[in-house]
């Protein structure tokens, strides 16, 4: 069974302010590089690597304060049950791992992207928090959602949380160019989405390494 979002604009605004303060307090710097966020009124699917608890906080700040987008996010059902507050921010997800739930997730995601006000849907297609530098491996859900909403921009976003030259860690984000669609099956499209995000992660690692040598 699908766990649907229960968006509450007031609570979303409150949590966005909390996220902003928390990020300022915990990080020495937040830096965004890369292609820049698409300047479009079309829906956006932002997909990212999943390495830390902060992946549930930083996208809220980016969506509300920087991108000015209506927030939605695909979240593990277990995590939604553990933190039900996130449903008020637009989080939804499957309660189980069966085919019926997967289909319901795609249908619901397509609905919110098509009916929202400049919506952004955040997806962590790795499906769980994993070590930061393992190869990208996605299930096909991202490709299926992207196929269901052909007008949506599909944007890879690489995230790193690194202790560098200061006492506090830095949050580093690199935005990739939107991924173009082509006539291919879900498996090949998924592999291409993996490759695009891996390329952004590699480029971000190179930026970080270059900064350490200056």
Structure description:
This protein is of the alpha/beta class. The protein is built from six helices and eight strands. The chain has a single domain (2-213), classed as Glycerol-3-phosphate (1)-acyltransferase (3-Layer(aba) Sandwich), CATH 3.40.1130. It has helices at 9-26, 58-67, 77-82, 99-115, 141-148, 186-213; strands spanning 2-3, 29-34, 44-48, 70-74, 91-94, 119-123, 153-162, 170-175. An eight-stranded mixed beta sheet has the order 1-5-4-6-3-7-8-2, with helices on both faces. β7 and β8 form a beta hairpin. The termini are far apart.
Strand order of the largest sheet: 1-5-4-6-3-7-8-2
Mean pLDDT value:
94
Determine the fraction of residues in helical runs and give it as a percent range.
40-55%
Main β-sheet description: 8 strands, mixed
CATH architecture: 3-Layer(aba) Sandwich
Number of helices: 6
Secondary-structure element sequence?
Answer: EHEEHEHEHEHEEH
Termini separation comes to 52 Å
CATH topology: Glycerol-3-phosphate (1)-acyltransferase
Q: Per the principal axes of the C-alpha atoms, what is the gross shape?
A: globular
CATH homology superfamily: Glycerol-3-phosphate (1)-acyltransferase
Specify Rg, calculated over alpha carbons.
Answer: 17 Å
Fraction in beta strands? 15-25%
The level-1 CATH class: Alpha Beta
Low-confidence stretches are none
């Amino acid at each position: 069974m699908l766990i649907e979002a229960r968006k509450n604009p007031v609570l979303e605004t409150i949590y966005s302010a909390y996220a902003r303060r928390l990020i300022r307090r915990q990080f020495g710097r937040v830096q965004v590089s890369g292609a820049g966020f698409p300047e479009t009124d079309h829906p956006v699917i932002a997909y990212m690597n999943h390495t830390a608890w902060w992946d549930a906080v930083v996208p809220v700040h980016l969506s509300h304060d920087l991108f000015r987008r209506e927030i939605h996010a695909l979240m593990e059902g277990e995590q939604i049950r553990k933190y039900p507050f996130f449903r008020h921010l637009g989080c939804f997800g499957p309660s189980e791992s069966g085919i019926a739930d997967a289909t319901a997730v795609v249908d619901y995601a397509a609905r919110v992207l098509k009916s929202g006000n400049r919506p952004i849907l955040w997806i962590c297609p790795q499906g769980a928090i994993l070590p930061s530098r393992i190869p990208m491996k996605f299930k096909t859900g991202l490709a299926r959602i992207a196929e269901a909403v052909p007008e949506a921009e599909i944007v890879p976003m690489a995230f790193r949380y690194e202790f560098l030259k200061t006492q506090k860690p830095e949050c580093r984000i690199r935005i990739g160019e939107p991924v173009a669609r082509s006539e291919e099956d879900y498996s090949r499209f998924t592999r291409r989405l993996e490759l695009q995000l891996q390329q952004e992660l590699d480029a971000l690692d190179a930026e970080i390494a270059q900064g350490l040598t200056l």
